Amino acid sequence: MIALPVSDGVTGVLILVLDDENVGRMKDADPVDLDVLKYFVAARAKFPVSKFELLICYEKDIAPLVEMQRRNDLKGIFDWLQRGRKLTVDDCHEPTSLSRKGQN
């Protein structure tokens, strides 16, 4: 797993890229733990941690992303990670709490 914090100075995005090992472990009920503050230590001066979005992706080979990060090619990273994006009807709704689903 790699985490890429990106900021425009006002808000930020934490890009979390899972690989085969992470997905395999999650399939075996072994969750991924993410210490958000750990990933925002360097970026904390640029924007508050409370004003960020989380983009979760999967990549079989993270080497191209590591190279783009080394070059600071943020557009390349976003384009690469969203190359297969498809929106569904459920993507347009607010997330629902699991505890509220049983009450409806």
Question: Secondary-structure blueprint of this entry?
Answer:
Blueprint: E1 2-7, E2 12-18, H1 20-27, H2 36-39, E3 52-58, H3 63-70, H4 74-81, H5 98-101
Parallel strand pairs: 2-3
Antiparallel strand pairs: 1-2
Count of individual domains: 1
Q: What is the helical fraction, as a range of percent?
A: 25-40%
Structural class: alpha+beta
Uncertain spans, ≥5 residues at pLDDT below 50?
none
Number of strands: 3
* Succession of helices and strands: EEHHEHHH
The main sheet comes to: 3 strands, mixed
Spatial extent as radius of gyration: 16 Å
Main-sheet strand order equals 1-2-3
Give the termini separation: 37 Å
- Shape, principal axes of CA atoms: globular
Beta percentage is: 15-25%
The average pLDDT score comes to 78
Question: What's the number of helices?
Answer: 5
